Amino acid sequence: MVETKEFHKYGKTLLYNIYDDSAIQSISPDQIEFWRNAHKQHVKESRSKGAQKASETREIRRQKRDDVYTEVGEKFKLLSDINEMLGATYLLAFWTLWASRWAKEYQVKRAVSKTPHLQTDKTAYWYSLKKEAIGLLVTSPVGKLSFYEPPKPKVRASLCEFHREEWRDSSLSLGFGEFVEQQFEQLVRCNECEIDQMYFALYFLEIKSPLADGWTFSFHTPYSVGSQFLPDPAVLPRVFHTREQEGMFRFGRTLQDVEKIIYSERDVKRNLQGAMSNYLSVANSQELSN
Length: 290
What we know:
With 290 residues, the chain is of the alpha+beta class. The chain has helices spanning 21-25, 29-82, 84-112, 116-137, 161-170, 176-182, 184-189, 223-226, 246-251, 257-262, 265-289, and strands spanning 3-9, 12-18, 143-148, 156-158, 194-196, 202-207, 217-222. The protein has a domain at 3-46. Helices cover 60% and strands 13% of the residues. The chain has a 3-stranded antiparallel sheet. Strands 1-2 form a two-stranded antiparallel ribbon. The protein is flat, with a radius of gyration of 30 Å. It starts with a strand and ends with a helix. The model is unreliable at 242-249 (pLDDT under 50).
């Protein structure tokens, strides 16, 4: 290299190298071949180190996953030794939890994805598994189902063109929520406005037993989904929570990076389906014995 020069592009100053053509032409074929071989050897060694590092990483992850599964398995065995249905319930609740988090993971990804239809399919798949599992868990003796409604009524509103124009005329003095609240009775009577008074309501299922040493699980199901297979809210007790709990209470959370490794989609799917089969088997055997 003889020198370095600069040029301007896209508002930036960039550098480029100037080489001595005569020096380049004087390089012998043997020297070029030597460099090529040295580069090939370097690439080979780098790949070998990379493969070895990847193998070590996989082994560490496998061992960590095995350790977690062994510890969890021992907990479920202890519960099953106390009561078979108790163990089956907690096993199902455990894998339902991870299915729920995979569903939330894809739901969040869908909002920022360039291929949202792919994330939608995954989201729907995991939520369908969760729905199936919840349908079993509500039949457990240690499952307590209740219903939540915001202390101050909240609605989801989609206004017709007439009422939207009416809101726009008043938007300098009223926010959208304030307008809906003030005109609520009129909007409900409108055949073209869509007012969902139960949008923020949900079913709340808690899995809890004094025999489980403080180990509990809780799941929420939106009213629009739960009303298809869960009891009428009128017959259920109400559950309350503080404002600080609202985000996690209503929406759950996604997966942490380490959790994606330990509780992979394949493992969660396999174990959840196995837990549902096991729960049904235990439930059926107890019905026969009774």
